[in-house]
Specification:
22% helix; alpha/beta; 14 helices; Alpha-Beta Plaits; elongated; single chain; six-stranded mixed beta sheet
């Protein structure tokens, strides 16, 4: 295989790979000096405009095989120059280092010194490279050019005087989003990023430009002045709002979530996430969160403890079964595969004839595919040599993360398994005739989900509800049990491509609530004890929900071995930023 040497480190390369791509790969392996970069991104066309990645390149003479400087010794952009066998690259030679210092000095000429109030501080390329490659003092004595702040759309602010004109954002809106709202206007030191008059940046991927910005020029309105990034802890997770299964970072501090950021996974979401995923987590901190279990007493819902709520729920189901009726368990597609399996098992433990149903699957519009439309124009320009291995980025119309996983888990239990439309028919919707006397529902949707058809069909039936938010349905049930959002628990989701991906809890469950998996295992133990917690031997503690243990149990079922052999786990460790103690001076 052909090889290249960068700063004394030899590496193989793939055909079409650029010097910078090899250097980045070596950096990830901890084997080479970093080549600084601003304008380059694997998912965008090569602009080669920032010039900080210029390197000194020597290559074998085709006739004599002797190493000679390419282009007469001129520095070459490593983001644009493809590799050739035997090439030797110097990113730390005196000539390359002098260029790096010159570029940094040029970029800082008009850059404001407002790092203490900039949201990008702590994760800013310009800050980092200033420390590594910049000068200790500025030689610029003239007045800095000052540009105004601009409101670009519902999610993005532009601080023009911080912009270094890398054009990542412009290329993203043109090549990925396909909407081209951003442009470059002006010339020389008056050149700046702007939107076309009357056209805000409001596409479905708009906030990705904030992630792409290497400095603090483009800022997220939602995160503006909310938290210093060095206080945030990052937990790798999965999109729990849509069927895409986008890989994300959940960034949080002291039990509060502050933002979502995309986590690169070339097999799922590449580098991007949609705005609906990025901002769809707010309900986790909603004042409408359910925190206390309740049971109906003399026609009124009253607060109770979890054990009593479980006992009343079990007794109500068993009473209906004893009367010759059937029960139904409706499992929300917002829950994990493990919770679906446990809830289905619980339903069958109380009623062997129980109907298992997948809850309502929200759909909004149609699937939309975003394709990177850039075609490398020549042998010296490339996007990524692995471009053919990319999955197109798709925004799915299905607005739940796990309808396929829930269905797979329930079907493994055998018996009567139906979709939600059929479940409504079984409940007597439209006919009034039904042999179902008890229903257990699970919600966990980020917004109101119960339809008039559902609430009407539940009339006269004993109803138990696991949910996270207050709703009209929650006021009509016989037992109400608070649940937890996916951000507060661990499990797996199966996305629209049938990829099963694991996620971990980012923050603790809100005080007073419990994850549905924990409620299911406790109710199972009470059922085994005859429906009364007091029958459980003294000294025996309630079992604890552990998603990994449940997956191993599921794998023993025919057709569910995929939950051990086919689960995708985060390929990166959680990026835990150092805890900093607040010291009063």
């Amino acid at each position: 295989m052909p090889s290249i040497t960068i700063n004394g480190v030899r590496s193989d390369f793939r055909p079409g790979e650029t010097i910078l791509q090899v250097a980045n790969r070596l950096k990830d392996q901890g084997n080479a000096t970093e080549i600084p970069q601003y304008c380059y991104h694997d998912g965008l066309s090569v602009a080669a405009s920032c010039r900080i990645c210029l390197v000194e390149v020597w290559a074998p003479n085709p006739k004599t095989s002797a190493l000679e400087p390419m282009m007469g010794g001129k520095l070459l952009p490593s983001c644009q120059q493809t590799c050739s066998d035997g090439m030797v690259v110097y990113a730390d030679s005196p000539k390359a280092v002098a260029n790096q210092k010159a570029v940094m000095e040029y970029l800082l000429i008009n850059h404001p010194l407002d790092c203490p109030v900039c949201d990008q501080a702590g994760e800013c390329f310009l800050q980092d490279y200033s420390y590594i490659y910049g000068r200790g003092v500025s030689r610029f004595e003239e007045e800095k050019v000052k540009n105004p702040k601009k409101d670009l759309g519902p999610h993005v602010y532009l601080y023009s005087d911080r912009c270094i004109m890398c054009t990542r954002c412009v290329r993203f809106t043109r090549e990925v989003a396909g909407t081209s709202e951003l442009m470059v206007q002006g010339r020389g030191n008056r050149e700046e990023i702007d939107i076309f008059p009357g056209v805000a940046i409001a596409n479905e991927l708009s906030a990705n430009v904030v992630d792409l910005c290497p400095v603090g020029a483009l800022l997220d309105k939602d995160f503006l002045f909310a938290q210093r990034v060095w206080f945030l802890k990052s937990t790798p997770s999965i999109d729990g709002i849509t069927a895409s299964g986008d890989n994300i970072w959940i960034e949080h501090n002291e039990g509060k979530i502050y933002r979502f950021k995309p986590r690169t996974n070339m097999a799922v979401n590449t580098w991007w996430i949609t705005d609906e995923v990025r901002y769809g987590w707010k309900f986790v901190h909603s004042p409408e969160r359910l925190k206390t279990p309740m049971r109906r007493q003399f026609g009124t819902l009253v607060e109770t403890d979890y054990t009593r709520a479980y006992e009343v729920a079990i007794a109500g189901v068993q009473k209906a079964v004893s009367a010759g009726q059937r029960s139904m368990m409706v499992v929300s597609p917002m829950l994990s595969c493990e919770e679906a399996y446990l809830l289905g098992t619980l339903a069958r433990a109380m009623d062997p004839r129980a109907i298992l149903a997948v809850g309502p699957v929200p759909v909004n519009g149609q699937d939309k595919t975003f394709k990177n439309n850039v075609t490398p124009p020549g042998p010296t320009m490339t996007l990524n040599p692995l471009a053919d291995e990319r999955k197109p980025f798709v925004m799915y119309a299905e607005k739940c993360p796990n309808s396929r996983g829930v269905k797979r888990a329930l079907q493994s239990l055998g018996g009567d398994v139906v979709d939600f439309a059929e479940a409504l028919k079984r409940l007597g919707h439209g006919t009034g005739a039904s042999d179902v006397g008890a229903v257990i529902l699970t919600g966990n949707y980020p917004s109101q989900w119960a339809t008039n058809e559902l609430t009407t069909s539940l009339g006269g039936k004993f109803t138990v509800l696991f949910d996270t938010l207050q709703s009209r349905l929650a006021e009509d049930v016989d037992v109400l049990i608070p649940g937890a959002t996916w951000m507060e628990k661990a499990g797996t989701f199966e996305n629209a491509r049938n990829q099963i991906q694991a996620f971990e809890a980012a923050i603790p469950v809100i005080d007073g609530a419990r994850c549905e998996g924990q409620s299911a295992v406790e109710m199972l133990r009470i059922v085994q004890a005859g429906g009364k917690a007091e029958n459980i031997p003294a000294g025996e503690s309630m079992p604890m929900f552990n998603s990994a243990n449940v997956r191993r149990m599921m794998a023993e079922k025919s057709g569910l071995t995929v939950f051990v052999a086919g689960v995708s786990y985060p390929a990166v460790e959680a990026q835990q930023k150092p805890d900093m103690e607040m010291v009063e001076l």
